[in-house]
Amino acid sequence: MSVKVRVRRQKLSGELFRKDLHASFLARVSSLDIDNPQSSGESQADFDYFYKTALQLLNQFCPERTISVTSRDTEYITPASKASLCRKNRLMRTGGVEEAGALAQRISKDIANRSKSRLNKISGRVDSKDM
What we know:
4 helices, mainly alpha
């Protein structure tokens, strides 16, 4: 007799701003001339130009990624921590062992902080099942 477990998948998408791209992003923004070359003095046209430029920079330095979080993942796994774990695994496979080790330490601190905040909500005597 086999028991089938139903797994719920939730796909979350969002921008993950990587710290290694932060310096190159700041250098690009500081060298950028934001003035609209075809400025007609209209506020809406100038804002549209600024918005288009900002959106291009965001897509270049902080692309949108989709992370699948399933019901089998533990509660302390967030989309950001799962993306970091995927990055750590990719680094380990390509030989970036030192960087992967540093990333693993950051991930463990994030998980510990998340678990600590969850456990702070439990007060007094609690049934072990509830815990």
